Amino acid sequence: xxxxxxxxxxxxxxxxxxxxTATAGLLDDEATVPFIARYRKxxxxxxxxxxxxxxxxxxGQLRELDKRREAILKSMIERDLLTDELNEKIQAxxxxxxxxxxxxxxxxxxxxxxxIARERGLEPLAEMLFEQSDIDPETEAEAFIDPxxxxxxxxDALDGARDIIAEWVTEDADARAKLRELFAIEGVISTRLITxxxxxxxxxxxxxxxxxxxxxxxxHRLLAMRRGEDEGVLRLAIIPSEETAIDILERLFIDSDxxxxxxxxxxxxxxxxxxxxxxxxxxxRAESKKAADIEAIRVFAENIRELLMAPxxxxxxxxxxxxxxxxxxxxVCLDAQxxxxxxxxIFPTGSQKQxxxxxxxxxxxxxxxxTKVIAIGNGTAGRETEAFVKGLGLPTHIQxxxxxxxxxxxxxxxxxxxxxxxxxxxxxxxAVSIGRRLMDPLAELVKIDPKSIGVGQYQHDVDxxxxxxxxxxxIVSCVNSVGVExxxxxxxxxxxxxxxxxxxxxxIMKYRDENGPFKSRTSIKKVPRLGPKAFEQAAGFLRIADAxxxxxxxxxxxxxxxxxxxMADNAGCTVDQLMTNVKRREQIKLQExxxxxxxxxxxxxxxxxxAKPGRDPRAEYESFAFEDSVKTIEDLSAGMRxxxxxxxxxxxxxxxxIGVHQDGLVHIxxxxxxxxxxxxxxxxxxxxxxxxxxxxxxxxxRISLSMRKQA
Length: 711
What we know:
Layout lengths: L2 H11 L3 H12 L4 H7 L1 H4 L4 H30 L5 H9 L3 H8 L9 H7 L3 H9 L5 H6 L11 H18 L1 H14 L1 E6 L15 E5 L5 H12 L3 E6 L2 H12 L5 H50 L9 E5 L6 E6 L5 E7 L5 H17 L4 E5 L4 H9 L8 E5 L4 H5 L2 H6 L5 H14 L1 H5 L18 H19 L1 E2 L5 H5 L6 H14 L16 H7 L3 E2 L17 H10 L4 H6 L1 H5 L13 H12 L29 E10 L2 E5 L6 E4 L20 E10 L4 E5 L5
Parallel strand pairs: 4-7, 7-8, 9-10, 13-15
Antiparallel strand pairs: 1-2, 1-3, 4-5, 5-6, 11-12, 11-14, 12-13, 14-15
């Protein structure tokens, strides 16, 4: 383990080096982030998932830097170019950019103007000029005229010498570092419309003529500009003041005021315009894109977390409806475990006869299957279907809930849905997904590609590998914080359990099908290829609701069962009694159970679990209803105050569903009565809010909303 890496990460994260060392060791031993955060608190000093993930990612970056460092050293040794001074600089480089700057002069190159000038024997002239002594450049250049080498005039010789000097300037590590800083701090991003693209690029109208400093541009704006460039609508540039840039270079390389330094000055200008500026712009484009990606992925991941951790209704008998006009509404009846019992099609917005038949069908199905809840998708015809169902005079004990169906159509056409329901069409699968999503959003949403759920910003424009990592981390965190009932979980849900993955999840499903439900956590070890390491990582996050051992229903890890048994023995009761009797638990003195492996943090977690075994960290479900009198965008008018649900949070505001099939935007300036820097500080996806209608543009289907009290 690299001690320099450990100290660097510790300083960056402001934690102790021993915490980094311990965490790195666990990660290298293939422990997962949720497992380390939950069950290795004594080892890491109680680091949370955020810190552990930061250590993992930074270690990866530093190790990549080391791999590149080793490759560069190997290349230079093989070509006999490595000196002690260069070796010292390479070893000391702390960033990839710094490392590449050092290597640049020695990097094998394609044929350049400077290469050609060297082949023509002009490097000695370049060296003379670069010294900037009191010489006459033209007189010195005469000695290098050689028609056979295509140096036919004094100007040919000076041109070639300046090409060599320009390359020296371009490859100078100090020059590159200073210009890199200038581009990052003073660089201005500008966009201009490409002539003739006005109509085609109307959605980029805000950027037809735009300028701002690159360090001030928010993530969503940069990604929008880049998309405009990719689509051939905008021309984009990121440059600082040319005068400032050249001044920096002249102060670095000009140390005299004579004809030779005049030649160097010309070379510097050429170096900047032809080589350095394009190179630095490429770098700042990459770095700014990377920063924008990180921010966009952070926003996306936060939104996904809120959606996945939305309150579950719980296991209830549900009648779910996927609304539609022309093709009707697909109706499915699900039992409390989400099993499909029956399906039908109704036309509640059709002819009177069709409406009468639809009413009779819903009432009959609700009575037949003892329906507790009716779930209605919020897509096309959703509000009309909701109004129809509410007007049926159903028993008051039946809840009627609107469900966000984003991604349901993606699920219904997926391989996952085909495997689950091979004998049903996509409409039936979509209705099932709507009903199950109400029961348990997390269990259902893990079956859908997160990018299809509609809570990101520019998710298709960001680096897809980084996006996948960020979203996978979020899903893994959510799944493991809730825990998974192994006997009812889908393959997709099991895949995200710590230590498992697709292959072991499939093996668990197969074993369950062939041998029946698991009776205990110990029996999980019988699953093929699920070895001791995977069991250690996964066991604490898997639940068995009807297990004989009550601890198998909790988040207490099997490695701590002996500790709980000792507590129960000392309290003169069974483990079951210890879990149900608060007075017996209050008698426990945790200090008595501290050992080399088990400390106070773990013991405190155990006591919390004994009090509420397998507790769900998600909030309680609260029913929600849109304003009955508002069903379409035409029903809206400025000044209305309406209930809504936040569907997406971005850096520029929040989108809110108010029940008219078109989300409205609460701009960041309208989120609160005070200044808002980050919308996520004020609203979360799936949050229930009250909004005021500011403006309605029916033609463009745009709704402006406000959450300010005086709006």
